[in-house]
Amino acid sequence: MLALMRVSVFAFATLLPAALLLVGSVWGGAWIWAAPVSIGLVWVLIDPLTPPRAHRGQEFPGADGLLALLALLQLTHMPLAIWALTERLTGADWVAGLIGFGLYFGQIGNPAAHELIHRSDRWLRGLGTAVYVMLGFGHHVSAHRLVHHVHVASPGDPNSARRGLGYWRFLPRAWIGSFRAGLAAERALKARSGGRRRNPYFVYVAGTGLALLATLLVFGPWGLAIHLLLAAHAQSQLLVSDYVQHYGLRRAPLPDGRLEPVGPQHSWNAAGWYSAAVTLNAPLHSDHHAHPARPYPQLTLPEGAPLLPAPLPAMAMVALFPPLWRRVMDPRLDALNRASPAAARLAPT
């Protein structure tokens, strides 16, 4: 019974929007409007009414199976989205469809692909890579594993925002910086292997090019524009998540010049039961950095880990308004530093 409940929490939260988008693409009306509501608003009602850790830290035998299904749904829902937005939906329903599909790729597709690229099984990792390639973000597979997890909470990580840096300035820096840093890391690995290792950047770029070409041939220029718009929306959601989860936190230098090991104090975490289920426990970020291969249902909130004042989706919306974001978060950085100088190292403003 417990295992069934575990399946139902994550499966319901992530598969319901896929079903609503499918039905809504055909019938429109309330169905297509229900899709973005199920992703972006239901957590507002459910999070305060449920225990914050009711479904965390336990085994979930079907975890990877659900991830694989979600990745396949991302790959099938992109052509569905383009068809619906070019051929089927009009007026207000078109807007709801654009928002719904964008949220689905960003809020559910990104966490599913993120989990998959950390798997040792090459087929599962390939599925996660395929999702990022479809979204024009293939380089994230290399940059996340080889750069972000190594250099997180330091100037060496383009996806760790220093204190005072607003999201809209962070966005292009993180995109370009992670592309370059991931490419450099892959080149270094290839050099150390004596040329035996292949640089996957060709697959990332060529794969995205082929996906966009297929969209253009099947759906025309308008379909291509929608594909690019949905991909940009999904990418921005991934980057705002990185921005929120590492803003202002820095690893301290050790006497030998190296940085202190990554610890719970180097990631912001968030409570919220249903929002965590929708995003496959992405808000439990400190534990993920401590154990990147740990299945998402088993992630927990470490003792003393920094906690955001609201669920992750809410804080992502706050981040879109830099003055408000700094007003909310900078005092919390100061409080962390006062409570334990070793728990938070603030980058210069």
Name the shape in a single word: globular
Main β sheet profile: none
List segments where confidence is low: pLDDT < 50 over at least 5 consecutive residues.
Answer: 1-5, 52-57, 343-349
Measured by DSSP, the beta-strand proportion falls in under 5%
Radius of gyration: 20 Å
> Helices and strands, in N-to-C order?
HHHHHHHHHHHHH
Structural class category: mainly alpha
Number of domain modules = 1
**Roughly how much helix do the residues carry, as a percent range?**
55-70%
Work out the number of β strands: 0
Explain what the structure shows.
The protein is mainly α. It has one domain (2-250, 259-339). The protein is 66% helix and 0% strand. It has helices at residues 2-27, 29-40, 42-46, 63-88, 91-117, 122-134, 139-151, 167-192, 201-246, 273-278, 285-290, 312-319, 322-339. The longest helix is centred in the middle third of the chain and has 46 residues, at 201-246.
List the helices and strands and how they pair.
Elements: H1 2-27, H2 29-40, H3 42-46, H4 63-88, H5 91-117, H6 122-134, H7 139-151, H8 167-192, H9 201-246, H10 273-278, H11 285-290, H12 312-319, H13 322-339
Helix pairs in contact: 1-2, 1-4, 1-5, 2-5, 4-5, 4-6, 4-9, 5-6, 5-9, 6-9, 7-8, 8-9, 9-12
Give me a quick take on this structure.
The protein is mainly α.
